[in-house]
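User: Predict the full complex structure for these chains.
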Amino acid sequence: MSASTERLAATSRRFSLRRPRLSWLIPVIGPVAFLALWEAVSASHVVRAVLLPSPVDTLGYLVDSLLHGTMATDALVTITRTLIAFAIGALLGVPLGVAFGSSVRLYSSVEFLVDFFRSMPASALIPLFILFFGIADINKIAIAGFSVFLIVMFNSAYGVMNARKSRLLAAKVMGASPFQMFRDVLIFESLPQTFVGLRNGISTALVIVVVAEMFIGSDQGLGYRIIEGEQILHVTDMYASIIVAGLIGYVLNMLFMLADKRLIHWNGK
Amino acid sequence: MTSTDAAAPIGAADAAFICVRGLSKAFGGQPVYHDFDLDLPRGTFTTIFGPNGCGKSTLINMLSGITPFDGGSVRIGGNDLRAAKIGYVFQNYRDSLFPWMRAIENIEYPLKVRGVSKARQAARVDELLAAFAITLDLKRYPYEMSGGQQQLVAILRALVSDPDVLFLDEPFSALDYEMTLYMRDKLQTVFLETGLTMVLVSHDLEEAVYLADRILLLSKRPTRLVELIRYETVRPRTTEIMGDPEFVRTKQHALDLFRAEMAR
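Assistant: Here is the predicted structure of the two-chain assembly.
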């Protein structure tokens, strides 16, 4: 009896000790399993080595090309294009969205256009943009910026339109002018939804920039590097570039989530 | 000044601070108020009680300018409604405080709107806190505070610009009983310290009698005044008063009227 109680206590003690110590491992399981699977497939030669290098080779090459090769430059070019496109789209999209959202009639007049262009795959417009902007850097930025603009604008407009009326009434009864209500209440009410638009916008910007780099005469950028790796069968470089593109997307998303938490601190509370 | 019009609460325009004449309001073709008159003297505490959906909140929303009305007039202190300074405490503090501002900024906001200098804003808030012996960490955001603290912030915000009237729409309905008792006492302190004209909507008859000088008992729609019940026991009142025969009698009388109204 007492022995079994003691054993039970020991087990629970060990359990409670083990849990916090090992809990950090849980999020690592997925990536490690993924790499193990990759290694297994690569080592088994089910897929030819020329099409699938081992993860160790790929990650080794990735580090090397970042430190000594041109990978860092290409990544930087892609990041720069993405950020410029995002900045242009956001700077135009937020104010216009807020303006449209403030007037139901104004928004109704453009609602179809916004929904139409938003639903259209932005890549379908790439040839059109080539006609207008040529194949220089400006083209990739223009088409990505256009996509960001649409996403950000309609999210901001919805944020303003769906703002809860109770706080506006509170401001009104305190004697706030329409401009003060707009500046001190409406803008803040719409911020959570605006941020949803900005987060979607930065992801879309990266997608469009990488696609544009593949197909619109580039000699730099991760999209160019990926397509080039495929063309000349330098697959290790291709895989490494894909991973870098994925990491950039991941980091950008994390940064926006952090900014969201800091800036829209009241969201969901 | 407040008790001289005891004989004629309705129609005593000279003593009336809040003066409502011929007020009409319909929702979707259904009349809620038709030709409604009301007079409330300055410095009195009025509570509004009535059946669910009879338009208690609609009434104070019209008196405070939040809800427009179809006909009639509302005058406060002899002035047009638009010229009056209104303090309003909403039922749902969560949806009426600004969560992007700290508690202190929430309280200062009505002053900021009026262009009062930053230094005078701070001085005024200190004055309020001292007057009502309130200790709160006002650096926090509303969502970091308890429900009672948030509603206290909302009340301070409504008081900060020194309003002509303070309207409260079921301000304690979301709080637990302990907090409700505390808040009633704080509100009574505010009433005694400021002598402000207050109008409070309640769904709790005990609260309506406990706080009031006069209880407006409203009917089902279309809404009329069933009776204006007076309860003028001296203040400050404590919870012990709820056992007092006068309190019990007033509450019972209101309840009888309420029951009769429900049975109609």
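Chain B is about 35% helix and 25% strand.
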